[in-house]
Amino acid sequence: MRRVLFGVMVVMIASSMVGAGELAKVTMPDQVTVSGKTLHLNGMGLRKKMMFKIYVAGLYLEQTSHDAAAIVNAAETKQVVMHFTTNKATKKRMDEAWVEGFEANSPETYAAVADRVKTFIGYFGDMKDGDVIELTMSPGEGTTVALNGEQKGVIEGDDFAKALLLVWLGDKPPTEDLKKGMLGSS
Q: What's the pLDDT band for 19 if we cut at 50, 70, 90?
């Protein structure tokens, strides 16, 4: 009887882990549904700063890809989910990191999105362990920003969505390991 119960428990645990990605104790589902579209987990990356694990980012796409340029330029729904794993992500540090990421990866278009970046970073305060940001980019509709399941707003423009994706997938990401992870290349 114990063997049967043990076997059932092993199967239940294994089946609950199938269809999910895990990194740094953060688990993300293999698929999410956004506006009736199924998005697939393309990859997960860990953002580290010095010895601190700041967040795990998952990239969801309609069609998975390892090609950053193709992902950024694809006219399809995309989602980035950020799970924070520390209490060290203060508003000041996060605001600076966002602006730096946008400026470094979209220097030629930053002026055109700067006001929207300001609105975007205004949605966030100090980020704590367990906080989750969901950024859903829908062509022609904008980027929906949610924090811990609460919609904060929508930033208009496909140009903003592209600049936002380039923060992680551009030539100067926060770290190469984070970019590779999100691309499913690590």
A: low
Between 158-169 and 91-105, two packed helices, what is the crossing angle to 10 degrees? 100
Listed in sequence order, the residues at least 6 apart from 30 whose beta carbon sits closer than 8 Å to its beta carbon are 19, 20, 21, 40, 41
Report the DSSP beta bridge partners of residue 56: 46, 83
pLDDT in tens, 9-18: 333 333 333 4
Indicate the residue type of 163. A
What residue ranges define each of the domains in the chain, with the CATH number in brackets? 22-182 (3.50.70.10)
pLDDT of 5 reads 35
Q: What is the pTM of this model?
A: 0.89
